[in-house]
Design brief:
By secondary structure, the protein is mainly alpha-helical. It contains six helices and four strands, in the order ααααβαβββα. The longest helix has 34 residues.
Length: 190
């Protein structure tokens, strides 16, 4: 849902007079942490799909959960940015449910096609099937949305991340315009 949230935020912001160029003015501390975390997650997913057993499973689980801690560090360093607290809370909830369930995000099998269920049963990827043994299942990927044929399974944490992304983009693109308008009005009055 992250891509959809980004697109939605951009469209709404532009419709309300926001300028996309203002996103270039957004200064994020430790931005390098995000691609490092995503590279770790992508590498773990790739090695699981390719069935490459590079290290003990506990180490893979540690790397997976650790990559989320990199994202939490990034959000902490940027906590004054609009929406970043929502993003941090969403990442934290996802980190908790992943960490407590052996390093994989549990997914409700009800919403998955048989091929995906079989892949998750085989231990492929960074997700696993939700079972009666799943802990904190209310935080897992248990919600389903089908918009124009694009099917998404998502968690409470994902919703909070999407809210934060929307606020970050919207307030960055639109807010500065309002501040500038208020500043120019103040100059005309004085």
């Amino acid at each position: 849902m992250l891509i959809e949230a980004l697109i939605f935020a951009l469209v709404i912001s532009m419709l309300l007079g926001g300028k996309i160029t203002r996103l270039g003015q957004l200064v994020l501390q430790g931005a390098w942490l995000v691609p490092v975390a995503l590279l770790i997650q992508s590498g773990l997913y790739w090695s699981a799909v390719r069935e490459i057993g590079l290290t003990p499973s506990w180490l893979i689980q540690s790397f997976g959960t650790g990559s989320y801690f990199l994202l939490l560090i990034f959000t902490w360093r940027n906590r004054t940015c609009p929406g970043m607290i929502w993003i941090a809370l969403g990442i934290l909830l996802n980190t908790i449910v992943i960490g407590i369930n052996g390093g994989v995000m549990p997914v409700d099998p009800l919403f998955l096609p048989e091929e995906s269920r079989n892949a998750l049963l085989g231990g492929q990827g960074t997700h696993g099937l939700m079972t009666p043994m799943t802990r904190l299942s209310f935080l897992a990927d248990r919600f389903y949305l089908n918009i124009l044929g694009f099917k998404q399974v998502f968690s409470v944490g994902d919703i909070l991340i999407d809210i934060g992304i929307f606020l970050l983009i919207f307030r960055t693109m639109v807010r500065k315009q309002k501040e500038h308008t208020l500043d120019s009005r103040a100059l005309k009055i004085s």
